[in-house]
Specification:
This protein has a single domain, classed as CinA-like (Maf protein, Alpha-Beta Complex), CATH 3.90.950. It is 44% helix and 23% strand. It contains 6 helices and 5 strands, in the order H-E-H-E-H-H-H-E-E-E-H. The protein is globular, with a radius of gyration of 15 Å.
């Protein structure tokens, strides 16, 4: 089980490590509604490393702000590997950051299907590596109520940033 203190500690570690590395981070969030960005910006000194946060809850926002292709959304749905990959690349390009994380999931209590049950979350991290951008994706399934699923998503997103620094 996650809690707000563990989120604060992880966010502080991200800010500290990003500061030490001289790197910047951005976020593209759907199911977390900006919680990853909030966790980072709650940490003093985060303005040196946090460039951009986009809450793209609707497909229209994913498409118009982050550049997710309509075909990708129609073929795979908003909670999918291709969509989070495009979200992460989109916010990385918008922000000029060194790393971006994107999350899209079904926090419930409704909205799940047999293929994508409540608790399904897709993550993508886009990392600037010299002149190239590399992307890593991961799917997780979290059990719990809406609040817990969102908390665990924030923890996983922050830990993923740390793991990729």
């Amino acid at each position: 089980m996650a809690d707000h203190e563990s989120i604060r500690k992880l966010a502080a570690a991200v800010v500290n490590d990003m500061t030490a590395a001289g790197k910047a981070v951005s976020t593209a969030e759907s199911c977390t509604g900006g919680w990853v960005s909030k966790a980072l910006t709650d940490i003093p000194g985060s303005s040196a490393v946090f460039h951009y946060g986009v809450v793209s809850y609707s497909n229209g926002a994913k498409e118009h702000i982050l550049g997710v292709k309509n075909d990708t959304l129609e073929q795979h749905g908003s909670v999918s590997e291709p969509v989070v990959g495009e979200m992460a690349a989109g916010v990385l390009n918008l922000s000029g950051s060194d790393i971006a994380v994107a999350v899209s999931g079904i926090a419930g209590p409704t909205g799940g299907t047999s293929e994508k049950p409540v608790g399904t979350v897709w993550f993508a991290w886009a990392i600037r590596d010299g002149g190239k951008i590399r992307s890593e994706t991961h799917q997780a399934h979290f059990d719990g109520d809406r609040e817990l699923i969102r908390e665990l998503t924030v923890v996983h997103a922050l830990q993923g940033i740390l793991d990729r620094l």
